[in-house]
């Protein structure tokens, strides 16, 4: 009975990204290595290099996949409140990935994907919204997510609310003030 692993796997790249995302959340970007990704994916230590030339390329691909996942999580008909809440939920559910996506240290695919975050906010207002309104709403929602992620909201402002309830309340107040629903 042979215990050898198959040389070829269908969609190995996606499997490697899934394993890397788990490792990222467990140990952070500094501890992530292609060798450890290979070990956890149960492939040879050279297998990831067929898909990613370096750790930086793997991190950029992780960031790009994070932006895709964030985009897929957004409500298309909920306006600023539901889009913002999806953004905050994503940040809280995937803190290391969220930080990687916006780290500013990425080049190539990861950095190019930042435009998709702006598009998420543009969808909350409509395609004819001026860029300043899009940037303003994105800055607000991103800041709210970061404050919650880092535990920086004082209890007196929380008023006993959990993260999601607090985010919904704050987004509702802001959307009402902006007329963005």
UniProtKB/TrEMBL annotation:
Protein name, per record: TetR/AcrR family transcriptional regulator
Entry-linked Gene3D superfamilies: Tetracycline Repressor, domain 2 (1.10.357.10)
Pfam families: TetR_C_33 (PF13305), TetR_N (PF00440)
InterPro entries reported in the protein's UniProt record: Homeodomain-like_sf (IPR009057), HTH-type_TetR-like_transc_reg (IPR050109), HTH_TetR (IPR001647), MT1864/Rv1816-like_C (IPR025996), Tet_transcr_reg_TetR-rel_C_sf (IPR036271)
Annotated transmembrane regions: none
Keywords per UniProt: DNA-binding, Transcription, Transcription regulation
Domain of life: Bacteria
SUPFAM superfamilies assigned to the protein according to its UniProt record, in alphabetical order: Homeodomain-like, Tetracyclin repressor-like, C-terminal domain
Domain HTH tetR-type: 10-70
DNA-binding region, residue range(s): 33-52
């Amino acid at each position: 009975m042979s215990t050898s692993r198959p040389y070829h796997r269908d969609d190995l790249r996606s499997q490697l990204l899934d394993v890397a995302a788990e490792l990222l959340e467990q140990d952070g970007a500094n501890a992530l290595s292609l060798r450890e990704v290979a070990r956890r994916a149960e492939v040879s230590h050279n297998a990831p290099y067929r898909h990613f030339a370096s750790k930086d390329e793997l991190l950029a691909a992780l960031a790009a996949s994070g932006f895709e996942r964030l985009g897929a999580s957004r409500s298309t008909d909920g306006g600023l409140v539901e889009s913002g809440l999806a953004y905050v939920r994503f940040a809280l559910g995937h803190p290391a990935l969220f930080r990687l996506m916006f780290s500013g240290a990425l080049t190539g695919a990861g950095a190019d994907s930042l435009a998709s975050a702006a598009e998420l906010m543009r969808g909350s207002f409509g395609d004819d919204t001026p860029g300043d309104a899009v940037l303003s709403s994105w800055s607000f929602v991103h800041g709210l997510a970061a404050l919650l992620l880092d535990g920086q909201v004082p209890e007196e402002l929380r008023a006993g609310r959990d993260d999601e309830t607090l985010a919904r309340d704050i987004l509702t107040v802001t959307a009402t003030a902006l007329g963005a629903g």
